[in-house]
Amino acid sequence: MRKQIILALLLTSSFNFAQEIKSSTVQDSVQNVKDIQEVLIKAQRKKQFVDKAVYSFDEEALKKARYANDLLQTLPELQFDPISSSISSIKGGKFLLLINGVESTELQARGIRPANVVRVEYYDNPPTRWANRADTVVNIITKNPEVGFAAGTSVSTALTTGFVNGQAYANYTNGRNNLGLEYSINLRDYDNRIVNRIYDYTLQNSHYNTNENKKDHFGYTYQDVALRYTNSLSDNYVFQAKFSMNIYNDFSKGNGESIFTKDNTTEQHGTSQYSGKKYNPPTLDLYFSKKLSKKDEISFNIVGSAYTSKSFEVGKEWVIGSGNIVFDNDMNLDAKQKSIVGEVAYTHDFKAGKLSTGYRIDNNSVNNTLENLAGNFDFSVNYLTQYLYSEFAGKSKKLMYRLGLGVTNINNKTATANDDDWTITPKIILGYELKKNHSLRLTSSYTPYSPGSTALSPNINQVVPNIVSTGNPYLTIQKAWNNNLNYSYNNKFFDFNANIFYNYIDNAINSIYVLYNNNTQYALTYENTKYSSRTGIQLTGSVKPFGNRLLVIKANIYPTMQRVKANSGALLKNNYFGNNFTISSEYKNLSLTYMFNIPVYTLSGAFLNTNENQNHIFINYKLKDWTFTTGMYWLGMPSRYKTKTLDESLVNYSGVTNIYNNKNMFILGIGYDFAKGKKNEINRKLYNNPAPAITF
């Protein structure tokens, strides 16, 4: 840990040192977006706009990359996540990938040869049509469409435990028609997870303490299958139909021992637990876009899904000496869901900028049927969200701006409550180019958020003796006011972003322990607090000491203050110094990457949780159409997760989970890709998803 802290300080110093390095004399190749549609950029440069940064790539980067995904990893705020085998943002949050404006997957990007990539657009402030979907949007722009075929497959696996990531894809283009098929699987099967849980509380004038140690066998399998058909005519129309299934199941089965103390009496208890869930939502996504004129375009999108997710839990706790049962839990949940999302959008290009306006409606109906030893419960909730929006983006000399105004209606209807809320949702983004490679941006937005099905459901879930969990059907909408002031600077050696942020949520939904069932139990439930806030500064970027990929240091540092004002009047506080670092090196066809962080506690409801620890090293070697990968994850440590309650909580809880299967986990991987031509270039404007599956 001491070595990691020293290395973190050295990396921070590198940022300051790199600021003194003289800027490259290469002229900016990204002057006007329309001017470079069919031009292959020869210099690696960045151009900052009000809501995005545009990156181009030099010949060296294009030669070293085997497919477009490799280019994404060169962006200062993106990195390869070796655990999920996917691209992620070093800042965290949801990530959405587009290809020529069309919602895509990383498997599709693997079918694009690097030489066909014109530029990459990185949105840290996604436009309205994407803002409800992701925190970060990346759009890969390619050259003219060609007829051809692309396919590939890859797999990486641990040699001593159940860890497998696999992918396969195929795309065929002929004239206006494109057909694509994709499949991915993430499998985990671990038999050495150790969990320690401690509950300490006072109930009816008696003091209770439970200290449990448990070893369990757990795992999950996530499979994603998609079939896509596209018919398009350049500068005229696009039609796309996509059918996908996200097949998921998990399990956990373990046994343990618990020391149960009531006042001065102590008992040795045995515990057992078995749980699991599964769902496979089919989704149909239909999209149509039509050019009405050179300056006008209209787009339609409809997405639908209907399925049932199933979850179960079985748990027991007994006195080892007598065999008397002190806790019994046998629970089954069936959640039937029907989701439909529809959107229409219209855009018009003016000389001064671009106008976008649209309407989206999202309806999600959930019917929960719960059976447990406390009885049978049926709970239904219907979520309806309507959003009417309009925004204008333009530029006046050095001032860039994007002004948006919308109206959001959220209607949540249950058997006991009906929350109907209309909210004006403005958004403003102002950007100013201070001088070459220096820019300043201000962002402010106001957005309502709906509570989830679990938070609203009154279903009772047995946790441990004397403690249950349940939702609150009377929760109301929470509303967030988000503000950011961002400074950006870049040159050949350095890419730096400093973001001062202040986020305020009115009626913030927060979990809390309360007395329950005539003060005979505690319940973990939810309430609308008075407010919550996050304030801090986030420093992100990369340093290239040699001006190339021979050595790249990426860092994300974000000291943050969290505050929650509970209805009781208590002010809950938490301060942390978030961080994660990546050091990489590329030489010819060989690349080496090391990732690490120092975990910190963040406030989430009634609990403080640490983020997942990182200490990973992996190597890639590329030989023609083949890629060979090896590495070791969680060097010298298991993956570790810690949770504890605040001092103000009625129930004091602490938990530590260690997955020892992951310690020094050695990985081998192989991949093969080939392509002839690529898919038709289309420009999809709308992107929607149905609601996620409901479980306990």
Please outline what is shown here:
With 696 residues, this protein is mainly beta. Helix content is 6%, strand content 66%.
Task: Give structural notes.
By secondary structure, the protein is mainly beta. The protein has a 27-stranded antiparallel sheet that branches. The longest helix is centred in the first third of the chain and has 17 residues, at 2-18. The chain is globular. 36% of the residues are buried. Residues 1-44 and 678-684 have low confidence and may be disordered.
Give the rounded overall mean pLDDT.
85
Number of strands: 39
Q: By helix and strand content, what is the structural category? A: mainly beta
Largest sheet: 27 strands, antiparallel
Detail the topology: elements first, then pairings.
Elements lengths: L1 H17 L27 E3 L3 E4 L3 H6 L3 H5 L5 E4 L4 E4 L5 E5 L2 E2 L2 H4 L7 E7 L4 H4 L4 E7 L3 E13 L3 E13 L2 E27 L2 E28 L3 E26 L2 E15 L2 E10 L4 E24 L5 E25 L3 E20 L2 E22 L2 E16 L3 E18 L2 E12 L3 H4 L4 E4 L2 E3 L8 E13 L3 E13 L2 E8 L4 E8 L2 E13 L8 E14 L5 E17 L2 E7 L4 E4 L2 E4 L4 E9 L2 E8 L5 E7 L6 E8 L5 E14 L18
Parallel strand pairs: 5-8, 24-28
Antiparallel strand pairs: 1-2, 2-7, 3-4, 5-6, 7-8, 9-10, 9-39, 10-11, 11-12, 11-38, 12-13, 13-14, 13-15, 14-16, 15-16, 16-17, 17-18, 18-19, 19-20, 20-21, 21-22, 22-25, 23-24, 25-26, 26-29, 27-28, 29-30, 30-31, 31-32, 32-35, 33-34, 34-37, 35-36, 36-39, 37-38
